[in-house]
Specification:
- There is one protein chain.
- With 52 residues, the chain is an all-alpha fold.
- 73% of the residues lie in helices and 0% in strands.
- It contains 3 helices and no strands.
- The radius of gyration is 14 Å and the shape is elongated.
- 0% of the residues are buried.
- The mean pLDDT is 81.
């Protein structure tokens, strides 16, 4: 597991994590505003991102 942590500390790894967090935040916003429903379909990130 140490090698994964080392990779995530690099700039490229941080960008991946930041993008993932930002994507999750956007999904939460559209659920809150009612654009998508809060059910199991919200777990399919590919379909949800296409609809945002």
């Amino acid at each position: 597991m140490g090698h994964i942590v080392r990779l995530l500390k690099k700039g490229e790894g941080q960008k991946v994590i930041d993008d993932y967090i930002h994507e999750g935040f956007k999904i939460g916003e559209v659920i809150q505003t009612g654009v998508i429903s809060h059910d199991n379909t919200a777990n399919n990130r590919q379909n949800v991102i296409e609809r945002i």
